[in-house]
Task: structure prediction
Amino acid sequence: MPKPKNVWEEFFKDKKHGGHRYSSEEFLAMEAREKLFHLDGGKTLLDFGCGSAELLTYYAPEYEKLVGVDFSPSMLGEASKRIKKKGCNNIDLILANHETLWEKLEFSFDRITAAGVIQYLTLQEIDKFIFDASRYLNRGGKIVLFDLLDSRLYPLWKVGLFSKDVNCLKILRKAGFELQTVVLASIKNRPKDILGFAYHPNKIEKIASKHGFKMIYVCSMYYEYKYHAIMFRA
Ligand SMILES: C[S@@+](CC[C@H](N)C(=O)[O-])C[C@H]1O[C@@H](n2cnc3c(N)ncnc32)[C@H](O)[C@@H]1O
Result:
């Protein structure tokens, strides 16, 4: 692939893990079980932004064929090792981004999913992603976007409202720190945070319905400030 053209591609180019709340296999297995419940069957699955396949390898026993896509070479390197270690011989990996992936696919899917990825796309990119995904979705298929940042809850999480030892002073301190980070990032022209990429579920639902999908959303079981968007043909 050509050299990184967006800030997130640069950010992830040498990352090796998906940044789950806990990195233990016990936790990843729990997260994957929740996600498999919402994926709710199908025989073929595309995981966009699969990272190091921390969830994908748990999906593998439930599907005939899986494809993981990511624009980070280091993530895919780790994914490859993990897939080998876990003996999942039904997974293919593709190095691509949200635009280039479609021309590299050889078949369509019963499930198209992404976990913790949508916050790196703008609303226009999400719109285009859903349009493209709809063309690669089999009849009766679902697009299931996991762990989108909820614009109502993410700022509260950022200032520590959900932490165990919350108090007013800590909230004020954290709010001050976050403000300083945003201001400094603006001055230095660096990405401020993914706060700007947290979306109200209604905005995602509007995009889904524009492309002929019904959408339901449910709270994420393991992340208080995230939700899952489940789309299926109306
Ligand atoms: C937070 S990690 C989550 C990884 C994985 N889904 C998981 O849950 O373990 C986000 C992943 O999305 C990938 N990613 C972000 N934006 C992308 C894009 N536009 N195209 C392809 N991959 C992308 C990153 O490289 C990274 O591996």
Summary: Residues 168-187 form the longest helix (20 residues).
